[in-house]
Amino acid sequence: MGVSSGRISLWTASLAAIVALAACGRDAEPEVPVETEGPARTAASVETVESPTLQAIKRRGRLNCGVHQGLVGFAYTDNRGEWRGFDADFCRGLAAAILGDADAVRFVPLTAENRFQALADDRIDVLWRNTSWTMERDTGGQLAFAGVNYYDGQGFLVRRSLNLSSAAELTGARVCVQSGSTSALNAEDYFRSRSIDYEAVVQPSEEAAREAYGREECDAFSADISALAAARTTLSSPAQHVLLPEVISKEPLGPVTRRGDEQWTAVVRWTLNALILAEEYGVTQANVEEQSKAARDPRVRRLLGAEGEFGQRLGLSATWAVDAVGAVGNYGEIFERNLGTQSPLDLARGLNAQWNARPGGLIYGLPVR
């Protein structure tokens, strides 16, 4: 069937109107040019909104860091009242990354029971206190884990005079554990799964559990192996106490922040990663300044601010990683000084060796790029 000339005229007029409108639209709103292949966008092209927590720290000129009340090797005060330890050094490294001053830290000693409330109440900016990353804590809606700085596991400390070779021999034993932690739950799981009768002697704090064990109010003390190693150094005759071979849990310990300030959690996460990467790349407290100027390895140059603007993405200076490593050393230096061969604990790196060490461990720094 043919098409009438009137309908053709109407169609032609409509098409002309559409073309005219399109032309007007181009005049009013310029076309967006199609991107062609070229260099990727750099960190400098990304604007970041600074976190409220980071803003508060910069205003007050101090980081509020929650730590253990007193755990040898991790967080404790020396005879001059100065805070020392593995976790304390990470607090100082974080303060240096943010403020350029490792001493701009207020250490807030916390118990297992009040540590999370201190975060919720804004008494602290970050909790760096041997806290295990678990599903319940991660999905509870209040906490954000920024990473793992120590892979631990729960064990048992007993008197050598008991002649025990395994925790499976603790039938009918009194076992000291700390309330408000995963220790009591892990011990219950271990003994129940093996149908072993035991008596849990629950104490309000790790120190109280340690003291009860020292007074022989229990036959064994169960806690993280690192805490047991620290506890043994405080006993009157450390050589008379032995760690049993069983490791009954996985305890990934690391810094915790408040949920809802992702940018602040990123600052904590990447400061931890910077200290880990520094060890992997051979950047030390002694050579970090030289490396920041002379390094040719692009990975090192990005880490130390010679290339890119990764500090800007965090709301920090270009020298944030240089400042952190210069203040406390790299991860390996922090470990050896506080927990390893240079410390009374003399703990092996074990799982806390770098991923590419021989033998390898679980410590693995995320790439800065």
From TrEMBL:
Entry similarity comment: Belongs to the bacterial solute-binding protein 3 family.
Signal peptide: 1-22
Descriptive protein name: Amino acid ABC transporter substrate-binding protein
Lineage top rank: taxon: Bacteria
BP terms from Gene Ontology: amino acid transport
Pfam families in the record: SBP_bac_3
SMART domains the record matches: PBPb
InterPro entries reported for this sequence: Bact_solute-bind_prot3, Solute-binding_3/MltF_N
CDD domains with a match to the protein in the record: PBP2_BztA
PANTHER family per record: AMINO ACID ABC TRANSPORTER PERMEASE (PTHR30085), AMINO-ACID ABC TRANSPORTER-BINDING PROTEIN YHDW-RELATED (PTHR30085:SF7)
Keywords, sorted A to Z: Signal, Transport
Residue ranges of domain Solute-binding protein family 3/N-terminal in the record: 62-291
Organism expressing this protein natively: Brevundimonas subvibrioides
